[in-house]
Amino acid sequence: MTVRDQDLKKKSFIHKIFTMKDRDVIGSSDFLEAQSDPVLDSQSISGRGAQMPVGQDVQSFRVFVATWNVGGKSPHSGLNLDDFLQVNNPSDIYVLGFQEIVPLNAGNVLVLEDNEPAAKWLALINQSLNKSTNGSSRLTASLGGSLFFSKPSLKKVSKSFRTESKRKLKSCNCTYELERKHSKDFCFRCQQPNINEDDLSSEPDEEGSNGFDISEISVSSTTSQMKYSLVASKQMVGIFVTLWARKECVQYVSHLRISCISRGIMGCLGNKGCISVSFLFHQTSFCFVCSHLASGEKEGDELRRNMDVLEILKNTQFPKICRTAYSRVPDKILDHDQVIWLGDLNYRIALSYSETRKLLVDNDWDTLLDKDQLKIEREAGRVFKGWKEGKIYFAPTYKYFYNSDTYFGEMKTSKKKRRTPAWCDRILWHGNGIRQLSYIRGESRFSDHRPVCATFFVDVMVNEDGLKKEIPSSNMKVEIEELLPTRNR
Question: Which ranges carry the Inositol polyphosphate-related phosphatase domain (predicted)?
Answer without folding.
Answer: 137-464
